[in-house]
Amino acid sequence: MFVVERTVKLEKGFIDIHKEKMNEYSPIFKSPGFVKREVLISTTNKEFDLIKTLVYFNDKKAYYVWEGSSEHIKMHKEKKENPVKPVGVISVERNYYEHFITNMHE
């Protein structure tokens, strides 16, 4: 599997707005090779909150299919045409991983 990790650092007080957005439907859910999306939230830091999204694809090729899809391109085109930084966002970091191993409780 291929995993895309996106970490959004937020100012305190904006987590609920972003949680609502994460509950909305995304066209990625129908993309061939999409496996699942996990959203993790951390509010333990006193200065900021974090939302970490892990998106799993069957393989790197499936990710590139999504990245080149008309739906994905349309989403980024709309952001370029309206380049307003989402409210409360301090920074966004993206990383890519090849899944190596999953160990589960026996």
Q: Which characteristics define this entry?
A:
alpha+beta, four-stranded antiparallel sheet, globular
- Which ranges are low-confidence, i.e. pLDDT below 50, for 5 or more consecutive residues? none
Large-scale geometry? globular
Major sheet strand order: 2-3-1-4
> How far from one another are the termini?
22 Å
Compute the number of strand runs: 4
The helix-strand sequence is EHEEHHE
Mean pLDDT: 92
Helix vs. strand class: alpha+beta
Largest sheet: 4 strands, antiparallel
Question: Which bin fits the share of residues in helices?
Answer: 25-40%
Total helices: the number is 3
How would you describe this protein?
The protein has three helices and four strands. Strand 2 (34-42) and strand 3 (48-57) form a beta hairpin. Helix content is 26%, strand content 37%. By secondary structure, the chain is an alpha+beta fold. The mean pLDDT is 92. The two termini are 22 Å apart. It has helices spanning 15-22, 60-67, 70-81, and strands at 2-11, 34-42, 48-57, 89-98. A four-stranded antiparallel β-sheet has the order 2-3-1-4.
Topology:
Blueprint: E1 2-11, H1 15-22, E2 34-42, E3 48-57, H2 60-67, H3 70-81, E4 89-98
Could you give a short description of this structure?
With 106 residues, the chain is of the alpha+beta class.
